[in-house]
Amino acid sequence: MDKIRDLASKKAAVIFTKSSCCMCHSIKSLFYELGASPAIHELDQDSCGREMERALQKLGCNPSVPAVFIGGKFVGSARDVISLHVDGTLKQKLIDAGAIWF
């Protein structure tokens, strides 16, 4: 859990993913389209990936990826991020965290 919190706090936007996950790809693409450059952590490519996946599940991620953090705070999974985007608050969260600037 400490590694997740440490990685999540190092950049304004952080996404934990798996390279084979189509929803992960969609969420990464959404962030790029909004102008953010999130830190991406591919759990299936990391030696501590299984441990981090269990920690994400303890945070309430089900499925465990994608898991999104903005401003060091856990935002949620793909469903949560898409809901924020649809209601218009995702971009403002990214701006407030310094992940997007104008």
Q: Any descriptors?
A:
globular, alpha+beta
Topology:
Elements (H helix, E strand, L loop, with lengths): L1 H7 L4 E5 L4 H13 L4 E4 L6 H11 L7 E4 L2 E4 L1 H9 L3 H8 L5
Parallel strand pairs: 1-2
Antiparallel strand pairs: 1-3, 3-4
Task: Tell me about this structure.
The protein has 102 residues and is α+β, with helices and mostly antiparallel strands. The longest helix has 13 residues. 47% of the residues lie in helices and 17% in strands. It is built from five helices and four strands. Helix 2 links the parallel strand 1 and strand 2. It has a four-stranded mixed sheet with strand order 2-1-3-4, with helices on both faces.
Nearest-integer average pLDDT: 95
Order of helix and strand elements from N to C terminus:
HEHEHEEHH
Enumerate the strands of the largest sheet in spatial order, edge to edge or round the barrel: 2-1-3-4
Shape: globular
* Low-pLDDT sequence parts: none
How far apart are the first and last residues' alpha carbons, in Å? 33 Å
In short:
It contains five helices and four strands, in the order αβαβαββαα. It is α+β, with helices and mostly antiparallel strands and 102 residues long.
